[in-house]
């Protein structure tokens, strides 16, 4: 399973462009602040519409400007993990985890709630409210929610940035297990070189360009 990305988008005074293949493993998007890394993830996820190009995963066309194909985000089967978790504050952890699971087609679900809970070690958190979780706990739940949505790949935008540095290794271990045990392709953004060195199997440079 691999991504094939070739996108261009004019945004403000910038031209954001990226062309790469992201195979199984963890592909790091690097580049200076403002180069367009988050925008590229958003174009892959279906949250930002490219002006030109295409996005496919395992040969499945998610976006193709020339053919007017633009699959909505909720039908792309990609899990998106943000810097701040973005859990639903009015739902307990269990309901947060099951949110995407209930929306996924039965044939697209490949992990059960029990499997995800064991994989991430979050059984003790199930009845908690998001506001009571530490940064690392919230991020585990956000990853669990992404896995349960039937995701066939993960997009992660600085997922460790709001976690206490002393707890970051625990989440890095979780991401390594997703990469190696579950074999899910991951496209990842971080500014932290040590984190990148531990996680990345492939690297793609996103270069800034101005109109
Ligand atoms: N909605 C928007 N309207 C206009 N310009 C935008 C918009 N969203 C982003 N941009 C600009 O597009 C460029 C790329 O932004 P993006 O957040 O993708 O970069 P990035 O590489 O992820 O940056 P960082 O590393 O700082 O998070 C930036 O210059 C940003 O100001």
Automatic annotation (TrEMBL):
One of its GO terms (molecular function) is ATP binding. The keyword ATP-binding applies. Residues 2-211 form the ABC transporter domain. Keywords: ATP-binding, Nucleotide-binding. It holds the Pfam family ABC_tran. PANTHER family: ABC TRANSPORTER I FAMILY MEMBER 10. This is ATP-binding cassette domain-containing protein. It comes from Sphingobium tyrosinilyticum.
